[in-house]
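Open question from group meeting: does this chain pack into something compact, or does most of it stay loose? Before anyone orders reagents, we agreed to write out a predicted structure and look at it together. Recording both the input and the output here so the notebook holds the full record.
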Amino acid sequence: MPSCLKSETVRVGNALVCSFTGDLILDSEPVATEALEAAFEQRPAVLAVDLAGVDLFTSTGLDLLLVARRRASEQGVTLVLVAPPARTLRVLELTGTAALFTVRATVGEALRTHRPSTPPV
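Structure tokens returned:
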């Protein structure tokens, strides 16, 4: 059975942008987990998770983001959620987890705002 979620990860300098399109539900959890695991293995300074294309966001999606947040914290990676739809934000608000995440409107904004400082030469 094909997944109802597609993912694409792109490197932008020392950051990665992991974009999801479709439904973040139980059936799509393996696709999302694999994409985020692969992203963390690359040790980016910033991981922007683009949720603009997410249609349905359930507790599976919430769990996935909470695990990603914990892993980012453990690895010193800045995790930023990009363009979550209103219904996704509503789930975060209702569960009291919205304050745990940094949210930006666009990928460009996320990467500009969270560009790691580079040591002077």
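Observations to bring back to the group:
Helices lie at 29-41, 59-75, 86-94, 107-113.
The domain at 5-113 is CATH 3.30.750.24 (Transcription Regulator spoIIAA).
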